[in-house]
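Example record

One chain of 439 residues, shown exactly as stored in the release files.
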Amino acid sequence: MIKRISMSSVKAVERWLPDPYVLVLLLTLVVFVAGMAIEREGPVQMIEHWGNGFWNLLQFAMQMVLILVTGWVLASTPFVRRILEAIAKLAKTPGQAIILVTLVSLCAAWINWGFGLVIGAMFGRQLARQVEGVDYRLLIASAYSGFLVWHGGLAGSVPLVIATEGHFMQEQMGVVSTGTTIFSAYNLLLVLCLFIVLPILNRLMMPKPEDTVTVDRSKLEDAPVVPEEKEPTPASRLENSLLLAQAVGIMGLVFIAYYFLVNDGSLNLNIVNFIFLFLGIILHGRPMQFLTSLQEAAKGAAGIIIQFPFYAGIMGMMVGSGLAVTLSNGFVAISNDVTLPLFAFLSAGIVNVFVPSGGGQWAVQAPVMIPAAMELGADMSRTAMAVAWGDAWTNMIQPFWALPALAIAGLRAKDIMGFCLITLVVSGVIIGVGLVVFP
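Predicted structure tokens for this chain:
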């Protein structure tokens, strides 16, 4: 039954889902019209909100470009490829490959979402090289499905923000320990359930042999080795200088050690990019080999570069017009102390389609959800985590976050979103019920 439903979903999505760039243009117009119709904003006001917000994600966009590029460069090194090949050998059949890539991406995403996005997609590519007959679309969709757990993991932005002294909601809810959010019983049970259900669900979605779409393995080869010149010049000697690359690479490793051991730093997007970059420099050995891999990696960054400003503009309209607050208030109005986390989760999932930023979304919804939790007597930490889980949940149908994985895999959004839609429905039931029922 699941196989039939998933294939119907895949066919429908392939027919109806446009390219992510076209989708972001449509979402822009939808929010523009909704702001005028619901919030009574004028067209000039909505355009002003849009334009003022358009460049607000520039830093984040650059971080996402770097997570794609540095992750690709690192994974294309001979050392990392040998590790991925060794782990991939554990899978002997297509079904085992689907289960293995799901588990690897779940583990990586729980540690850090950027790490999970890159490692999952890279490992999926490696499995496609080694396992015959595996559906490449489902393989990458399974890798992306691990992203579901990131906001309930070690790098979850909402639980880390409210655990930080001086956060903007401290007067209302105080400083909330991660023991009541990330490491609470209900959150760990949710993560455990997804670790069990997602690999099984992805395995059950495997198409029949006649419907399986494989990939030409020659297209999955990484950057070629750069041949050395027969008569090297001073410039080419520098470009192939092992000493030059290692000297700078060691400087990077020293800083990483200082960051974690002396400053007691935590994993965030900047340090993950820093680690990927300098490990890539060291493991490629020579600057020219690194540059060759870098040029290959950069080809997939176009979607991120052009689409993220449009999403920032949408976020500007959602926040500036009050649409996000109105939506959140609508769900609060039908909630009680028991159901508030469920409705916070659902509202966050909807808002996330238009405001795909965990921190940005919390800034919009926290001033609505936390006072509501206080008034209704609901658990504030659980309500906060419900917003976090809602943010992660609809990423399964939001191409915004899939862009790095798709660029690494060489696929289009419509290739994987049919499978991800099934994941969205099943995981939504698990998370929604868990937020209400789990102790």
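Notes: The two ends are 32 Å apart (CA to CA).
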